[in-house]
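Record type: monomer structure entry
Structure origin: computed from sequence
Chain ID: A
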Amino acid sequence: MHRLRVDWIRCEGYGLCGDYAPGVIELDEWRYPILRGDPVDQSFLNEVQRAIDCCPMKALALEAIVDDRGRRIDFPVGTDADALQRRRASSRAS
């Protein structure tokens, strides 16, 4: 699973990312991206990749989600990642 990341130093607020991937990226009033930080659902990967490719400043990237040991985390398709993380945290506390 991957998370979308913005390089805020490069981003100039063109807003093309929100135009190409409205299901994942919202735009603020100045057309800067607003990201929720959630893992990108596989159904949106094509939109997100197009937004990354079309960003004139190359300010977007997909990064793999890793655990504290550096291992890549893959969530099953359709799984609420936050709920899965909460379950893992509660099982560790028990």
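Annotation 1: The longest strand covers residues 2-6.
Annotation 2: The domain at 2-93 is CATH 3.30.70.20 (Alpha-Beta Plaits).
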